[in-house]
Every structure is written in C-alpha cells, then in structure tokens.
Amino acid sequence: MTDKRTQAQQRIAELTPPVNALKERLDALRAEIGKVVVGQRYMIERLLIGLLADGHLLLEGVPGLAKTTAVKALAQAIDADFSRLQFTPDLLPADVLGTQIYNPKDASFSTRKGPVFANLVLADEINRAPAKVQSALLEAMQERQVTIGDETFALPAPFLVLATQNPIEQEGTYPLPEAQVDRFMLKMSVGYPSRAEEREIMRRAAAPTEPIQPVIAASELIEAQRLVRQVWMEDVVAEYIIEVVAATRDPSSIDRELSRFIQFGASPRASISLAAAARAHAVLNGRAFVTPDNVKAVGLDVLRHRVLLTYEAEAEELTADAVVKRIFEHVKTP
Fold first, then answer.
1. Burial of 211 by CB count in 10 Å (0-12 exposed, 13-18 middle, 19+ buried)?
2. Residue 119: which CATH number?
3. Are residues 81 and 195 part of one domain?
4. How do residues 53-110 score in pLDDT, each as one tens digit?
5. The total number of structural domains that make up the chain
C-alpha cells in the first residue's frame, strides 16, 4: 500500500509541471474565445474538455445562444483545419463524406474528399438531416475513417465533431436515435446569458470584433491529449465511476423508487467517457490527479443522453437531468 502511494505521489509530481504549462495555454485559448463569446463559461469549458479528452460534443439549446459562434471561435483559436456542415433535409452522405468523380477524358474515377476531412467539424443543426446522413457522420466519428468506393481513408488527427441541435423545434427535424447519440462523449444543455452578459452582448454587437489569434497548434493538441490520459486516477475514484454508471442500470440497488423511472442504463462507453472527461476537468483546474468532484462536475454531461427514461418518468415530468442528479445524490462519494 505504501509503495502504491509513493508511486502515485511520484507520478503526480512528474505530471504537475506539464499540466500547469498546459493550463496556461488553455487559459490563453479561453481568452481568445472570450473575444467574441460573452459569458457561457460552462459551454466553453465543455468545449475544452472535449478537445482534451478527444471526445465529440453535442450542444443543445434554443437559437441565438452563441453555440455556432463559440465553435467557430474555438476553431479560429486553434491552428487546425475547420469545416462547417449546415445540415438540411436534402443533404446526402456524399455531401459529408465525399464521393468518386468520373473523368470522361481517361474513363477513370477520382476521389473527392468531403468536408468531414478536417480536424474540427461543426455539424450545425444535426437533427435536420435524415437518418442516412446522420449515420454516415456518426460512423466516421466512431471509426475515425471513411470508405469512399473501394478505398478507406483515415481521418486527420485530432478529429472532433461538434454538433448543435435545437430542442424545441420538431417540424422538419429527424431526432438522433439513442444508439447514435451515445457516440457523443458530452451532451451540453446551453442556457441563457445573465442580464449583465446580455448587456455586454448588445454593446459588442455595435462595435467591431477583435480578431481571434491561433494560440495552439493541432500537433500541440495531440500532445495535450496524451498528457490528459496520463493524469492520475486513484482506484477509489475509478470504482466511484463504476458505481455511478452501474446505478443507472440497476437503480433499485440505491433507490427503489428510482427504478420506476429508468428504462435503460448507460453502457461501458459511459464509464470510459466519464473517466476521460474527469481527467480533462482536473487539468483545466491545474491538477494532475482526479478527485470525485471532477467526476461530479462532468457527470451530468456524460450521462444525460445515455439514461433512457420510462413513460412513467415522462408522465411525472421527470427529466434525465433530474434522474442523474438523484443517482449522484444516492451513490456514496469516496
């Protein structure tokens, strides 16, 4: 036990200087995004967690909350390839992935790669495209590769999909199936700004915007992701993550009443995502080790789209957020 404690202390001591250096770069990245995005600290922090944890993000919120603006600002602050896809009902998989073009001069086909071949891909209003387009993009997200004709192409590294969707509009939309939503590491619920922030938004709208400067390269981002994966996690914290995820599958073990509200719990992908996001959250706070508070901070974003509720929960107007919060309240914190 003493040897393991010594090993942990040594690892944390080794990781602390590079973690502090990375935090300084991330603070600079936040400052650049803050040139065009007022407030929305929660959303910006989750965007950075997705970058560090190498996980795709789904941003949900009503129009006008700077979801697209924040993603574009993030892309400008990173020296990497960026593409934006505006999802519409008439979009085809080839419009996303690419296609083969026939050349009549020499009777041959050439491959034209689609906009998905970028480091950061903004899928704007992803629920406006039909299922075949959603499936094409989400397959690329999972496999990190695209097959066009008889050729398979690896997607660039890093590769991150940031998708937005409007939760209140139903006409002309195609809701993402639960199995496909599970491909996103985090699902964020973006809220309204405060009155003071909205006043600042109005002021900036009437003034010229300060240009965003890139402060981190794609190669540096890959190194940052490697560093985040090395952040120390004690066995008790790992066990805490497993207990929380297991409680979504067997809620009666922690609260008999809660079992009436959960139809299906989270898969092991949730445990992996929760651990990765907690490590990234620790780095954002300048720590080289994970605490239960890091797990709690990102738990709602990791689990809200992975816990499927029963009709009884809907009848009682219980949301997935409320159910996940109750799980965290009942699972003992180490």
1. exposed
2. 3.40.50.300
3. yes
4. 999 999 888 777 788 888 888 888 888 888 988 888 888 888 888 887 877 877 777 7
5. 2
